[in-house]
Amino acid sequence: MIKLEEIEKRKRHQEDLRYQLEEKERFRQKEIQDKLYEERAAKLWEIEYQKKIDAQRQLHLQKVKFF
């Protein structure tokens, strides 16, 4: 009986460790995904901002041509 209890105890411990490792990996993957999302959002913002600057520059150049 003691051996069977010891085997069950080890099995539960292994399952707990496996769960902890899987949870850690899920957390790591979520951090990576969040970082990629933030980088992409920043890049899209930068592109939109640059478009606005370019549009203002073109508008300014058109006004300068008329003078």
What this model shows, in words?
The chain is built from 1 helix and no strands. The protein has one helix at 2-66. The longest helix is centred in the middle third of the chain and has 65 residues, at 2-66. The chain is rod-shaped.
The largest sheet, given as strand count, sense and whether it forms a barrel, is: none
Alpha carbon gap, first and last residue: 99 Å
Structural class: mainly alpha
Name the assembly state.
Answer: single chain
Helix content: over 70%
Low-confidence spans: none
Q: So what's the overall shape?
A: rod-shaped
* Rg, Å, rounded: 29 Å
Task: Summarize the SSE layout with pairings.
Elements: H1 2-66
Give a brief description:
With 67 residues, the chain is mostly helical. Helix content is 97%, strand content 0%.
Feature tags:
0% strand; 67 residues; mainly alpha; single chain; 1 helix
